[in-house]
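[Discussion] Sanity-checking designs against the backbone

I'm trying to build intuition for which residues belong where. Below is a structure token string of 384 positions. I'd appreciate it if someone posts a full sequence so I can compare it with mine line by line.
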């Protein structure tokens, strides 16, 4: 039922994609802080010291006078639903949600002149298609990274070289079947993971972009996912639940975030991760300002704070992500000078970043299957 509700929300929001996105007025200047700011964020993105050593909120509150409240969301569809309901100032949206929020007029353009550290951003991210529409920026980049293949090192003595270990029925290196021992992501955007695998496994399909699929390519991806259904023990969306599954439920391989990898390794579990030969999907997350924000001045203060090299490095160290400010890669005690390389700074070109599929696509002559179809069909895959 939860998946059905999430997808109904997604279908409602994506309907706006058929029309033209019009830029709203952006904030012309900053005023005094309103005393608070409310943020919808991925787990682990906004830490205030609940775990010792990880706190990039307290100093902001003290300096700005803006009290930070956080609502965590486990999926992009949940983020869209929360922003649609209103009452929040900011959201750390991934690419499969950000353009839906723009199309639904739930976020407003960013006046980059009011974010002094904008010029310090990684040039690869400044004009990202997931937050820039017709040259207008609808957010400030926050962190990025891959959807890694997480695996149990007692089952895999060597890193798996292909995503086939989660897509195809097989015996794993320990001699046991992968049935019931692998997981898949609980979200329609996971269809892109199947398409990315097929791009290499079945080159005759001619897949160029895993988010731009014609009917034949899309059908092949769905067929692969339907076969995978018999292998999947659980479709995950809650990072904490996936950590428990790898700890005590016998799960040995799955798509995951570096956050879970770091958490399990910190608990001394036999866990590692890799990016297989096919590459990986990934996320470039953007902090976006709600169209009806009641605390825009505090929100802009947070946007600037979020780009401080210390904050960027600390978030990357905690989450296992990559900073959007390259200066954060040096001199951060928590991240260390090797952290950016370890977290994948040089893997940018190997990642197919999440974006919302639409019919208006380049690789298939504007004949692509839109997200509304992805959302409804993925329910069928999970429910078969």
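Best answer:
Here's mine. Compare freely.
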């Amino acid at each position: 039922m939860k998946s059905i509700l999430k997808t109904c929300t997604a279908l409602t929001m994506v309907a706006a994609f058929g029309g033209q996105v019009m830029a709203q007025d952006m904030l012309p200047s900053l005023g005094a802080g309103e005393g608070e700011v409310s943020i919808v964020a991925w787990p682990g993105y906004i830490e205030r010291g609940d775990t010792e050593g990880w706190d990039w909120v307290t100093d902001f509150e003290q300096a700005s006078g803006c009290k930070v409240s956080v609502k965590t969301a486990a999926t992009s569809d949940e983020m869209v639903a929360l922003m649609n309901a209103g009452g929040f100032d900011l959201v750390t949206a991934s690419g499969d949600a950000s353009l839906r929020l723009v199309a639904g007029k739930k976020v407003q353009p960013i006046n980059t002149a009011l974010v002094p550290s904008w010029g310090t951003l990684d040039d690869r991210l400044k004009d990202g298609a997931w937050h820039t529409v017709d040259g207008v920026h609808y957010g400030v980049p926050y962190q990025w990274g891959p959807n890694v293949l997480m695996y149990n090192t007692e089952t895999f003595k060597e890193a798996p070289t292909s995503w086939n270990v989660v897509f195809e029925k097989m015996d794993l290196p320990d001699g046991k079947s992968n049935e019931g021992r692998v997981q898949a992501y609980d979200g329609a955007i996971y269809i892109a993971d199947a398409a990315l695998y097929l791009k290499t496994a079945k080159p005759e399909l001619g897949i160029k972009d895993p988010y731009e699929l014609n009917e034949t390519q899309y059908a092949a991806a769905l067929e692969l996912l339907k076969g995978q259904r018999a292998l999947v023990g659980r479709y995950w969306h809650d990072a904490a639940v996936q950590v428990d599954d790898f700890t005590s439920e016998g799960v040995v391989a799955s798509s995951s975030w570096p956050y879970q990898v770091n958490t399990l390794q910190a608990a001394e579990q036999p866990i590692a991760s890799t990016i297989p030969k096919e590459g990986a999907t990934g996320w470039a997350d953007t902090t976006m300002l709600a169209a009806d924000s009641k605390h825009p001045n505090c929100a802009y203060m947070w946007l600037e704070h979020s780009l401080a090299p210390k904050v960027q490095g600390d978030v990357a160290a905690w989450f296992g992500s990559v900073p959007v400010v390259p200066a954060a890669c040096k001199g951060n005690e928590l991240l260390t000078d090797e952290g950016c390389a370890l977290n994948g700074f040089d893997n940018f070109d190997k990642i197919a970043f999440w974006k919302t599929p639409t019919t208006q696509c380049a690789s298939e002559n504007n004949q692509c299957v839109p997200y509304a179809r992805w959302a409804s069909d993925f329910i069928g895959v999970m429910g078969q």
